[in-house]
């Protein structure tokens, strides 16, 4: 395709079974013509979904036909039929079973590119040349079986990813000119109002403009617990609407939805080679020619030097070619990487390539941002201390009446707490805000002030009675809001950024699975940092850091532990995440910056996904190492059996096929790992 005038570049992603062509637009017919030699053809997505693997795969059909000819040949042999008939049937079984292999192998041999197809082609051709018709037919058939089963297991891993693409509907009900029209998602424009009935999937990203419901966002965030949505709530394509009807204003085109971008990024991730895969490819590059030279030596040296029989020497050389074929070694890494990345995507974790998968599995230390990562990023009331005769419920009602007029985060926390406690709201009049200090209002005919301790000190309010309680709360890292007037303080409200429910559990799980060091990096003052650090259980905390301070801290940790992860919100912490071995963003759903900057994205605001992802990465590393070790041990053991002449062509192909299938099935175990 690259040679076609007007085509700038072309890339095939086998993991996602997609081709990307840059430049001239080629028709499906042109692509099919160019891809015919390698049996690559373009199909519509719905055709592919409905295609039956065993019936639609040419390798499978030819292998089945080869089996038929092989059984007829063996029957002919058993019935003592004329020799030419038996040999002809064996040759038919060989040609049909080995057709796909030879079609790919011969061009490579002509270019001196020795891959597994080339090795098998030489082996089968050699067996026919020395008259081993039966062995040639069996080897061609068994290699066809191996290729078919391998293609099937890879298709299973690929299907795990492709099921993501089927989450979002292809049509949407949209209001146009006062009428509801069902349109293909490609025709839906930004700003259109989309109607979503109870139980339907959302076709586009958008913002709710009418209606209230619960929405299951598992396809995007991996979180199966439905979230409540109402006007101004953000919703994502692929989410399932609950019991209420919704009207949603579309904010992104079909190709830009969060789900579409997740799929695109996962597909790109499959194209990126893991370091282990790069090593295996380099190893195979030298290993294969070395085996060919060794086989050539086995075929020529014994007859020429030791006067051994030509036929047995060539036979042993062919057996060596087959058994030394690096099939299992070559598939040892990519199937594991595709399986792990696909599994993570289903659980709401986006891993952007084999490199990041391997890096995460080998992390020794992980640094965490505080606000929005270990904490919710929203203050909550932790304690109310009435100082006079007024009850806790009464002071909460007065404070909520005043703070209901303010937009400050601390004000919203007090109002939210009052709603939770069902405190009876009073009416506040003559509200005056004093920016940076607090506010004044009249409640039930009496003037009150609410705000920071500094506000009351400036008013000259006596503080002796509350000083001890105030200092105690501040030492525990609480932000304190006072309620009172110029004569007295009637209540203290202690607020803190709430620690995430999942943070402490996630950190203890990381310790259990072998992360040596956890560190919290924050711009907050030391007292607050210490309180949060103790609550979540990090090994160390560093407070009052500017963004460049976080970068220096990550560099220092990297020098000590070599491999370090940085978990943040994907925006403020981008510099520190870039310096870390692996940058991990929290809450990527709806955050373009997180999707772009991080190496790994936890789509939900859920830290419990981090230990799962580290476990998955470590399992992937373990399985890749198992696969490589098993492949090499099997090969060397089989090669050793060649020299005494104990290895037949049949055993050789069984050893090769068995190793390849076991390695592939071992890799597919990664699909089953769950949080």
UniProtKB/TrEMBL annotation:
Q: Which GO terms describe its cellular component?
A: plasma membrane
**Keywords, sorted A to Z:** ATP-binding, Cadmium, Cell membrane, Ion transport, Membrane, Metal-binding, Nucleotide-binding, Phosphoprotein, Translocase, Transmembrane, Transmembrane helix, Transport
Q: Name one GO molecular function term.
A: metal ion binding
The lineage's top-level taxon is Bacteria
Keyword Transmembrane helix (UniProt): yes
Q: Which residue range or ranges hold the P-type ATPase A domain?
A: 168-267
Query: Subcellular location, in the record's words?
Result: Cell membrane
Which membrane topology term applies here? Answer: Multi-pass membrane protein
Q: Name one Pfam family in it.
A: Hydrolase
Family listed: Belongs to the cation transport ATPase (P-type) (TC 3.A.3) family. Type IB subfamily.
Name of the protein in its database record: Cd(2+)-exporting ATPase
């Amino acid at each position: 395709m690259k040679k076609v005038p007007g085509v700038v570049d072309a890339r095939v992603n086998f993991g996602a079974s997609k081709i990307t062509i840059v430049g001239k637009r080629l028709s499906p017919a042109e692509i099919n013509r160019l891809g015919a030699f390698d049996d690559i053809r373009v199909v519509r997505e719905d055709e592919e979904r409905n295609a039956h693997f065993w019936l639609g795969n040419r390798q499978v059909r030819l292998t089945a036909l080869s089996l038929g000819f092989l059984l007829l040949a063996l029957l002919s042999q058993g019935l003592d039929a004329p020799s030419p008939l038996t040999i002809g049937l064996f040759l038919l079984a060989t040609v049909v079973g080995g057709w796909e292999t030879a079609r790919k192998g011969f061009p490579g041999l002509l270019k001196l590119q020795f891959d597994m197809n080339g090795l098998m082609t030489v082996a089968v051709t050699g067996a026919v040349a020395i008259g081993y018709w039966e062995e040639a037919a069996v080897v061609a058939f068994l290699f066809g079986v191996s290729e078919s089963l391998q293609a099937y297991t890879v298709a299973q891993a690929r299907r795990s990813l492709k099921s993501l693409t089927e989450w979002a509907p292809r049509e949407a009900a949209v209001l146009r000119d006062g009428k509801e029209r069902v349109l293909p998602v490609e025709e839906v424009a930004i700003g259109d109002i989309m109607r979503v009935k109870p139980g339907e999937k959302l076709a586009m990203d958008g913002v709710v403009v009418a209606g209230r419901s619960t929405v299951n966002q598992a396809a995007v965030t991996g979180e199966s617990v439905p979230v409540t949505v109402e006007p101004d709530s953000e919703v994502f394509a692929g989410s399932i609407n609950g019991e209420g009807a919704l009207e949603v204003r579309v904010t992104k085109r079909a190709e830009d939805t969060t789900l579409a971008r997740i799929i695109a990024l996962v597909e790109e991730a499959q194209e990126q080679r893991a370091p282990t895969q790069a090593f295996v490819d380099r190893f195979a590059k030298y290993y294969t020619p070395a085996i060919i030279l060794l086989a050539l030596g086995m075929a020529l040296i014994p007859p020429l030097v030791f006067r051994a029989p030509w036929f047995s020497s060539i036979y042993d050389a062919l057996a060596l070619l087959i058994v030394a074929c690096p099939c299992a070694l070559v598939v040892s890494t990519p199937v594991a990487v595709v399986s792990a990345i696909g599994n993570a995507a289903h659980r709401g974790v986006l891993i952007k390539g084999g490199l990041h998968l391997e890096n995460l599995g080998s992390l020794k230390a992980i640094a965490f941002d505080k606000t929005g990562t270990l904490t919710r990023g929203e203050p909550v009331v932790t304690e109310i201390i009435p100082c006079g005769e007024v009850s806790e419920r009464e002071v909460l009602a007065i404070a909520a009446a005043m703070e209901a007029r303010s937009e400050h985060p601390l004000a919203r926390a007090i109002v939210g707490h009052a709603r939770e406690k069902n405190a009876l709201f009073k009416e506040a009049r003559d509200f005056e805000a004093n920016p940076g200090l607090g506010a004044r209002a009249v409640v039930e005919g009496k003037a009150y002030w609410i705000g920071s301790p500094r506000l009351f000190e400036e008013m000259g309010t006596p503080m002796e009675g509350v000083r001890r309680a105030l200092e105690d709360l501040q030492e525990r890292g609480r932000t304190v809001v006072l309620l009172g007037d110029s004569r007295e303080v009637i209540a203290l409200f202690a607020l803190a950024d709430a620690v995430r429910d999942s943070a402490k559990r996630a950190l203890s799980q990381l310790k259990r699975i072998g992360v040596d060091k956890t560190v919290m990096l924050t711009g907050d003052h030391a007292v607050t940092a210490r309180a949060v650090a103790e609550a979540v259980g990090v090994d160390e905390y560093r407070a009052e850091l500017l963004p460049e301070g976080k970068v220096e801290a990550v560099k220092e940790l990297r020098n000590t532990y070599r491999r370090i992860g940085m978990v943040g919100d994907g925006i403020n912490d981008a510099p520190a995440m870039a310096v870390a071995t692996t940058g991990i963003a929290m809450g990527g759903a709806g955050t373009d910056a997180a999707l772009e900057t991080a190496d790994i994205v936890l789509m939900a605001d859920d830290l419990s996904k981090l230990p799962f992802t580290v476990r998955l990465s470590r399992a992937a590393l373990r399985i890749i190492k198992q696969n490589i070790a098993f492949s090499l041990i099997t090969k060397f053991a089989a090669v050793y059996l060649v020299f005494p002449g104990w290895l037949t062509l049949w055993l050789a192909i069984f050893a090769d096929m068995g190793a390849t299938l076991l390695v592939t099935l071992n890799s597919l175990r990664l699909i089953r790992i769950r949080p």
